[in-house]
Amino acid sequence: MGIIRSEERAKAELDEFRRMLMASAGAHRRKSQHDHRFNGAVDETDDGDQGGLVCVTSGLSFLGIAIVNCLLIRGYSVRIIVDNPEDLEKIEEMESNYNNGNNNSNNISAIMANLADEESLLPEVFKDCRGVFHTSAFIDPAGLSGYTKYMADIEAKASENVIKACARTPSVKKFVLTSSLLTCLWRDSTRQQENSLLINHDSWSSESLCRDKKLWYALGKLRAEKATWIVAEESGLNMASICPGLITGPEFYNINSTATTAYLKGAQEMYKNGLLASVDVNRLAEAHVCVYEAMNKTTGGRYICFDEIINDEEGAEKLAKEINVPKSKFCGTERGTSNAPTQFQLSKKKLTNLMSTQQRPCYNQSQEQL
Fold it and tell me: What residues make up the domain containing 23?
């Protein structure tokens, strides 16, 4: 948002979005003809576990597309925020094609807003939405400047703008932020206590350490998450934050190479300490929706999300091939690092316990279609 994208990435995003619409349309056609929940106006009185209008910022991003798909399969109507007229027009065209012959005529809509500009977040942006998924990451997709300290400032300000707008919108009851595992693990080792080797949802990275190491992506996510928690607590808005490891999935590196590179700054140190973790984009999307639905009955909170911890050379080689980077990016040129003792322990127990009760996965039927 506010950062010019390359034509190649824009095309890749729209192609992926088109595939997502086709897959989701098939899922919706299998729904009962008697299910008219989303024909016409949003039923604001329905506070059940499923359904209603929600908004996804950066809905054309790799993660955004996966979240939108998961929401559509579960029966939600989705409003996508884009930041330029071209994307808006293309989504509207695809939306028209998607809705042709589909009883769920209000499943997808789009609106344009610059999240970095508070005045751009007009009342209609989140109007009638019950919840908002703020997934935006402010990067330079063309790879010209990478993720800079300036972008960290933009990300923090934009996240604050979004949640303030949500807090002003009466219909919005829940807010889910995509943060990062990096907001939990960058801590000053000289100040660690023996009982603090466990890193979980209660752990926070050190802002000063991120600045000293020039870990701008970690700093941006950290400042963004802290800013949103302050607003949520002041306004009473029910909020959850998901802190994922390095996002992986088909073609992710080709579409989001800058985000991957930014996340991997300091990768060798993470690998050495047993803190280099990855997560598949579809499982991450499902975690977002699962947490969102659980917020109907409980308050949100923070959740760490990852699939694998890369702590040996075999795992490093597998990940390197998947995201098209040298294995030395993780484990350096030295051999035998796989036998080094792990200094820290990552825990995703809170999210695992929550998702173990989930009986409606997003991707059990449609995974191969995406």
Answer: 7-28+51-186+206-248+280-305
DSSP character string of 270-337 = HHHTT--EEEEHHHHHHHHHHHHHHTTTS--EEEEE-SEE--SHHHHHHHHHHHT--THHHH-S-S-G
| Residue 41: pLDDT band with limits 50, 70, 90 | very low
pTM: 0.84
Q: What is the DSSP string of 221-270?
A: HHHHHHHHHHHHHHHT-EEEEEEE-EEE-TTHHHHSHHHHHHHTTTHHHH
- Give the list of residues 6+ apart from residue 56 with CB closer than 8 angstroms, or none: 64, 67, 68, 71, 78, 79, 80, 81, 132, 133, 135
Instruction: Identify the DSSP state of 75.
Output: T
Single out the catalytic residue among 221, 265, 272, 348: 221
Integer Cα distance of 232 and 341 in angstroms: 39
CA distance 320 to 216: 22
pLDDT digits (tens, 9 = 90+) for 167-199: 999 999 999 999 999 999 998 766 655 457 899
CATH number of the domain within which 55 lies: 3.40.50.720
Residue type, 236: G
Long-range contacts of 211-216 (CB under 8 A, 24+ apart): 213/186, 213/266, 214/149, 214/265, 215/182, 215/186, 215/265, 215/266, 216/147, 216/148, 216/149, 216/151, 216/152, 216/262, 216/265
219 inside domain: yes
User: In the chain, how many domains are there?
Assistant: 1
Known catalytic membership, residue 213? no
Go through 47-70 and write b for each residue having 16 or more CB atoms within 10 A of its CB, e for each that does not.
Answer: eeeebbbbbbbbbbbbbbbbbbbb
- The amino acid sitting at 37 is R
